[in-house]
Amino acid sequence: MTNPDLQLDIRDDVAIVRLTRGAKRNALSDSLILALRNTFETLPSTVRAAVLDGEGPHFCAGLDLSELKERDAGQGMQHSRLWHGALDLIQHGPVPVIAALHGAVVGGGLELASACHIRVADRSTFYALPEGSRGIFVGGGGSVRIPKLIGVARMTDMMMTGRVYNAEDGERANFAQYLVDEGAAFDKAFELAKRVATNAPLTNYALMHALPRIAEQSADHGFFTEALMSGIVQNAPEAKARVRDFLEGRGAKVSKE
Ligand code: 1HE
């Protein structure tokens, strides 16, 4: 399925997925949501990490409001489930995804960013949830994912009062793990993706699929799941080879950057 509003480039083993609807501030129409889902579902097996980027001055203006007009309750629920399916494929898909944020990261755009594993923001970035003032509610998984980043109290405040976080406050609040100069988010995200792509695939799998689930479990269940995952990951030939490399002086040492 091709869509003019989404571009996929593969550079080495990193997929670059770019929203290319800059004229509409990368607003997410239904067809764009479906294209995102399809892209992550069908990434070539050689891809080991992905960068998610947006064309133009803004990462993403959220839901395409022009499509909101005529939905009854049932259709609204189905629409939300459409988003859930697509964004779940980003969070629990085949590869880690690093979001390169700039300009508006608002509404569904913030929901999309929060489904990614690492967020890099440049200094032009701002975060908001205008759903509150538009008389609607989040529907793209934001009520589950955003409080995990910033907490329920901050999200409630954003939606109730329309509060907008700038890039610096946003980093402090935990929206993004990296804050870089204006225009530098993509390069940093790509550099991180290349590094992530060199990890053993099972380690990345455990980080994407086990870690968030363990965080939801009781301590007792979490310790047990951790032990299972730990046993499986270290049993992989790649893990054994990497440990042997270090013990025989070939593996990289941990060092301050
Ligand atoms: C749009 C959208 C959109 C821009 N849907 N068309 N999201 C929002 O409430 C955010 C609404 N957008 C904005 O506040 C601003 O557009 C921005 C701060 C993102 C950018 O401002 P600016 O001055 O750079 O651009 P602009 O002139 O406002 O917009 C350029 C065009 O994009 C314009 O169309 P044009 O035909 O007049 O050129 C805008 O109408 C269009 N545009 N944003 C449709 N969102 C799963 S539920 C999720 C729920 C939500 O995400 S609700 C929050 C929606």
Distance between the termini: 42 Å
Shape: globular
What is the oligomeric state here?
single chain
* Helix-strand makeup class: alpha/beta
Name the ligand types.
3-methylmercaptopropionate-CoA (MMPA-CoA)
In helices, the fraction of residues equals 40-55%
Strand tally: 9
In the sheet with the most strands, the strands line up as 1-2-3-4-6-9
> Are there runs of 5+ residues with pLDDT below 50, and where?
none
- List the secondary-structure elements in sequence, H or E: EEHEHEEHEEHHEHEHHHH
User: Per DSSP, what share of the residues sits in E-state strands of 2 or more residues?
Assistant: 15-25%
**Helix count from the secondary structure assignment:** 10
The biggest beta sheet reads: 6 strands, mixed
The Rg value, from CA coordinates, equals 19 Å
* Rounded mean pLDDT score: 96
Question: What report would you give on this structure?
Answer:
This is Enoyl-CoA hydratase/carnithine racemase. The protein has 257 residues and is an alpha/beta fold. The protein is 47% helix and 15% strand. The protein has helices at residues 30-41, 73-91, 108-114, 142-150, 152-161, 167-173, 185-197, 201-216, 219-234, 237-247; strands at 6-11, 14-19, 49-54, 97-101, 104-106, 118-122, 126-128, 165-166, 178-180. The strands form two sheets. It has a six-stranded mixed sheet, with helices on both faces. A three-stranded mixed sheet has the order 5-7-8. Helix 3 packs across helix 4 (142-150) and helix 8 (201-216) packs antiparallel against helix 9. The relative contact order is 0.12. Bound molecules: 3-methylmercaptopropionate-CoA (MMPA-CoA) (1HE). The site of 3-methylmercaptopropionate-CoA (MMPA-CoA) has 21 residues, from strand 5.
